[in-house]
Amino acid sequence: MEQQMRNIIEEVYSDLEAACAEMGETLDAESLADCVGDRMCDTSAEYRAMPYAKRRAIVLKIARLYC
To answer: What are the backbone dihedrals phi and psi of residue 2, each rounded to the nearest 5 degrees, phi first?
Structure first.
């Protein structure tokens, strides 16, 4: 599951960073985690089955490695 999250980050990171920059902001881990979490909910039944607090903690842990 963590590898799937990393793959999503690699797909969206530069676009999210550019969008944030256009708005005069920097991409933070919470925003990145929101995006990755949304994609994981769309693609992973295992992720959807986890309690929210646990899946949020996992995705934030991964997002903080990038932001």
So the answer is: -60, -35
